[in-house]
């Protein structure tokens, strides 16, 4: 009991330090980095109020201060300050890359299932099984970030193996242990891109990258009061990303504002010869990029379909706030089509019945084995090796407790058999008769739901979605609003999400409640 009281006292003292420290200024000009947007940071660079070195030092300081409690970061880049100095030199020399609006000199955390080839940071999906493995190259999205001048600050934590191992809670992985929600530390972080959401919400990074297979960007964004963009599958390359399934995996930004998320999206989209899905999806990328769709009047004349069942619990705090937001959207010129229903919604949300889980376990084994075999070096070379590693070498009682039933189910599969093919057909039918038909018949620009449970409807069709902060319950736990659409409709979704954000301005900094 004395040990428990001691740990509780330590946690209380850390929390007290967090709560008693306000926003920090880091230059003689008094510019405040906390909550600063990418555009504000770039303006501060331009006006000599801020350097990239000062910015990186600020975030490293915040990681040192907050991460022992929040555990949103697995590791930091030991070269981050060197890269910041390089960015400052480029800016002082007016190098062409530094003159473009965007991410030049901006620190970004990437989820720890996204490969970084510097031999100083690991790519492990939060597992000790991959600690010390060497990837053949940067993930394509990391290369795109570097080419845009961004500074890779470090690796964000995640639900281990992107929540595809066993029964571990959201936000837990062996390497960093349990991630904490910065608004209410005892609340769910959701997963699997929990660390990306935690870190950007708590100002431990300017912007972050997450990945989603089914809800892993949209859900943690909702629970941690940040903006998350889950792009159309193939709009961003998955090359160098530890996979679950190529049918649904996607990479997207998680940021404090819609505009910041769009800056990141512009930087990472594009055709990659190592990911065939990008060939088809690249046709959706608009000439001039996505920044042009950041319009204050983005809600005007948009047809928005409100899907309540089963996403709105009548009489709940969320339902009450959602009604208020619907009225705001109307007032801003949106055409609201209310009380719509996605056909076969119960079947869609049942991963076992829909066939989604069947495709997951079959494709995970094939995809992970291919990824592991492609590593330059690794302690494990197959899913079977990972299972054996966990059984033999894991010293954590938590790993034993949480198990690896999904791993074992995947290992038992024998490729893409007739059962998997049938599951593919069923998922395609559910999408065609569900969201596609609903949007076509009602001529919708987007579907709107509270929270992130609509993510599965989007996931099975490879469709895009954007979460925007929408409120906080009576305990202070955040919740978001989800705008979803059909493939390639990111421009409309960005207009709608930005219009909503500017009309409501809901997001506030975290409160770190115990």
TrEMBL record:
<keyword id="KW-0732">Signal</keyword>
<protein>
    <recommendedName>
        <fullName>Amidase domain-containing protein</fullName>
    </recommendedName>
</protein>
<dbReference type="Pfam" id="PF01425">
    <property type="entry name" value="Amidase"/>
</dbReference>
<feature type="signal peptide">
    <location>
        <begin position="1"/>
        <end position="25"/>
    </location>
</feature>
<dbReference type="InterPro" id="IPR036928">
    <property type="entry name" value="AS_sf"/>
</dbReference>
<feature type="domain" description="Amidase">
    <location>
        <begin position="55"/>
        <end position="454"/>
    </location>
</feature>
<dbReference type="InterPro" id="IPR023631">
    <property type="entry name" value="Amidase_dom"/>
</dbReference>
């Amino acid at each position: 009991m004395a040990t428990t009281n001691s740990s509780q006292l330590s946690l209380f003292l850390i929390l007290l330090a967090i709560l008693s420290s306000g926003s920090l200024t880091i230059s003689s000009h008094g510019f405040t980095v906390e909550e600063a947007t990418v555009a504000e940071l770039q303006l501060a660079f331009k006006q000599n109020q801020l350097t990239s070195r000062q910015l990186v030092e600020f975030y490293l300081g915040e990681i040192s201060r907050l991460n022992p409690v929040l555990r949103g970061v697995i590791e930091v880049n030991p070269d981050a300050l060197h890269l910041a100095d390089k960015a400052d030199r480029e800016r002082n020399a007016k190098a062409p890359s530094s003159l473009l609006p965007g991410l030049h000199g901006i620190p970004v955390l990437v989820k720890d299932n996204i490969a970084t080839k510097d031999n100083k940071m690991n790519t492990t999906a939060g597992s000790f099984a991959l600690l010390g493995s060497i990837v053949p190259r940067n993930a394509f999205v990391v290369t795109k970030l570097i080419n845009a001048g961004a500074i890779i600050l470090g690796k964000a934590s995640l639900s281990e193996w992107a929540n595809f191992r066993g029964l571990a809670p959201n936000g837990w992985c062996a390497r960093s242990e349990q991630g904490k929600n910065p608004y209410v530390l005892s609340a769910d972080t959701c997963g699997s891109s929990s660390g990306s959401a935690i870190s950007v919400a708590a100002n431990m990074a300017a912007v972050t990258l997450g990945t989603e297979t089914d809800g892993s960007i949209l859900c943690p964004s909702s629970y941690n009061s940040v903006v998350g963009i889950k792009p159309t599958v193939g709009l961003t390359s998955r090359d160098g990303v530890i996979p679950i399934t190529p049918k649904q995996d996607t990479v997207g930004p998680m940021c404090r504002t819609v505009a910041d998320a769009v800056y990141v999206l512009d930087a990472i989209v594009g055709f990659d010869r190592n990911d065939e899905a990008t060939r088809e999806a690249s046709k959706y990328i608009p000439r001039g990029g996505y920044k042009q769709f950041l319009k204050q009047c983005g809600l005007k004349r948009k047809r928005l379909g409100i899907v309540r069942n089963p996403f709105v619990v009548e009489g709940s705090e969320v339902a009450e706030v959602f009604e208020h937001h619907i009225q705001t959207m109307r007032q801003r010129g949106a055409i609201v089509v209310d009380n719509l229903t996605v056909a076969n919604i119960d079947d869609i949300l049942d991963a076992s019945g829909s066939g989604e889980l069947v495709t997951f376990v079959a494709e995970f084994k094939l995809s992970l084995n291919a990824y592991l075999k492609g590593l330059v070096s690794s302690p494990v070379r197959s899913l079977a090796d990972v299972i054996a590693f966990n059984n033999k070498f894991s010293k954590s009682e938590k790993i034993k407790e949480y198990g690896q039933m999904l791993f074992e189910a995947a290992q038992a599969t024998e490729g893409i058999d007739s059962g998997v093919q049938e599951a593919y057909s069923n998922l395609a039918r559910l999408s065609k008769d569900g969201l596609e038909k609903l949007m076509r018949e009602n001529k919708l620009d987007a579907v709107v739901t509270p929270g992130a449970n609509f993510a599965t409807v989007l996931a099975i069709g490879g469709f895009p979605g954007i979460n925007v902060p929408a409120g906080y319950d009576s305990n202070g736990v955040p919740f978001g609003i989800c705008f979803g659409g059909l493939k390639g409709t990111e421009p409309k979704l960005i207009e709608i999400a930005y219009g909503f954000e500017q009309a409501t301005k809901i997001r506030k900094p975290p409160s770190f409640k115990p």
